[in-house]
Amino acid sequence: MARFALPILALLVFAFGFQSPRVEPVVSAQQNLSQLEIHESSASSSVVGQFRTNVTSWLWLHTDLYLHNGVEMRPLTEQEKKVGKGGDLASDSMKEEVRVTTIPARESDFRGVFGDVERETSAYKTMQHHSHNDPDVTLPLFRLMVLVDPHFTPGWINGAAMMALDHVPNANQVAVDFLKDGLRQNPGNVLLNLELGGMLVGKLRRFDEGISALQEGLKNVQPRDLADEEYGSAVEDGIRWLALAYRESGRPSEERQTLEAGLKWFPGDKVLSGMLDKLAK
Amino acid sequence: MLKAIEVENLFVQYRSRSGVVKDAVKGLSFQVDRGEVVAFLGPNGAGKSSTLKALMGFLIPASGAVSVFGLEAGSIEAKRRIGYLPEIANYYPYLTPTETLCLYGNLQGLQGQSLRREVAELLEQVGLASASKTLNKNLSKGMLQRVGIAQALLGEPELLILDEFTSGLDPIGRRQLRDLLQKRRDAGCTIFFSSHELDEVEMLCDRVLLIRDGKLIDENAVEALKENLGSYSLTYRGKQFEAPGVCEQLSKQIWRHTFADKGEFMQTLNQTFKHKVELLDVSCSDGSLEDYFVDTIRRSA
Amino acid sequence: MKFHAWGALAGGVIKESIRRKDLWVIAILSLVILLFSSALGFFGVQGLQVFAKDLGLTLLSVLSTIMAALISTRLLPDELKSKTIYPLAARPISRFDLLFGKYLGAVFATWVGFLLLATTTFIGLAIFKVSFEPILLQYLVFKAFGLALLCSVGMMFSLYCTTNAAATLTMVLAFGGTILSRGLTMAYGQSAPALQAFFKALNAVLPQYGLFDLGGRAANVRWSPAPMWVAAFLFGYAVVYSGFMLALGMRKFGKQAL
Question: Domains of chain A: which residue ranges?
């Protein structure tokens, strides 16, 4: 009899299960599927989407590597920051952070001859001999990056910045065209509009075009996103460019309006307040 | 004169993954003379293959001594004089029989034209000449066994150790192989093999060793066995007379005498005439090795 | 005689590998690399020479490493499982000859696959107008040393654990060795003396497979080939380390019941 006890108990539990009230979701999230991209709504496409993201990230990392001619670098660990690293420190002008070669310098490498050999077989240079490659080596990567994932905004922005540094006569125009390509793929994108506007105003001095791009960008700014350092900084720059563009175009009232609106979002911005003071005088 | 094989108090143990030790061979001792053909018989799991592996040096005995022509079993010098056929005939699936034999020949130290000639001859002898360029994976089990036999005969070894050599062979193949081995025996080669095919044993062997549970339980010359295994009887009507063998009364005045020894049988047959009894039946049958095998194994159990 | 036996065993392995179509898989993979390279060209992204070279050499390195691990870890267990080892072990050769012959077979089969892959990679790179530089030749030679070392590691593991475990361990050491080495060098300065001694011992024992990879230099520009003393050191290290691995393997295989 005892051997039937367990199955009977299981059946009872199962049967009682039907008596319990149905679990309802506490929050019924309304999702508009048409707003999702196909890779977000389809399992098979999602795998492709994931792959696309991975490839893009991988390419992103490689741009940095190619700039340093294959020399791998890393930021300092917290411990290294505290005690001070005795080895191969570098103030990376492009990243504006103190970094160190991944392969340690001879004096800070315990591996002896293995370390010596690695420094001879891997892409390694002491920071004294370190130099950056021409940024144009990374341009194809940026093009490939946005080809793989057209929604990868940093690829468009950094790619445009590198293109503007290229040694061709119309480098700035190439960069602007690149950003416009990006905007066609991502209409209304705040960061792309602000970057495009900044470039038109700052580098090409095409104020009217710049103003409309900056206005388009600032129109879509979500104040809650300003807490994000990168996003906030881009918006702050955008407001400055827009104010400057208005000044250069002789539109002081719009300049004032822009500066005042900007100071509401960034009350501590000395550039904006300085510009406002200058305008008042 | 050195023996071809000497096994002295051999113990072979296997240790399972859980650490349990199992004795496969327990204190086995025997010898094989040069030029002798000896069958190594026993039921499944008796320890035959383990003993053969110990002879080849494929496993290290727990204790005891094993030597081949006075050389340590498994040594390079000993292996140079042995041709070995494993129980399971598996050969490189993506090589042809010719390539397989050439590979083994090379390892044997043979090379060049003489090796190629010998390989061709061997394949001819084992009936594989037509399949010499077929990949092993496309050969039947019996054909693979022939490849195995050919590789064992490579380099004209002085001692052949064959584990279940007739396995997978058809009757024609068995006869071919028997002829081949008889030729080798006539040329002075020592043959030591395990088999479950007792007809083959009977036709080929000088001597049989019978093992069970890793122990030698009997050892006999085949000729002597054949004589001892015979069964003879005579049945007569009349007055019972004194005679060797076993006598039983079948009915009133009908008697049957049964003998194991042929001489006693003949002697008693003569006496029937002297005693003027009416001879009803005479029966003579040679004993089979199978009876011997089954009886001996049963007795030892 | 020994060289003859080793050669025969190695030859058998290569012949089997070719007929088993193992190398065909490599050829198909190479074709995929070629198609991929052509596809990049098709998308019209110009100036990708460095990237193409980097990608090509990375793929070459990864695929050849996987190939070495799989070939070397499969050989002896397959022989034991299919019982083809018996007729081999019955020949007048020592167990070491058997192990070493099989090791050479694994190395040569890997090298054949590696050369096949390399040839296709360089054809693929030619599509991007990447010329064959001296450093690429050195890359191939160093990589070949490294693959030989990796085969010995795989073969050693295959004698102590299952085929799958051996292949996994070999690949973990091959791919994770450099990362581990980086971690050790980063942590060394902040570690206690006892831990530092352990790091040193660990570093000495681990196969330094990453040292044989010149890909970082070969893929980028203006890097000169490594000096001769490095080549000599790597060759010596591969020989000594492989010998050590085979000796470890022999400790098991020498006594193993077949």
Answer: 72-129, 135-280
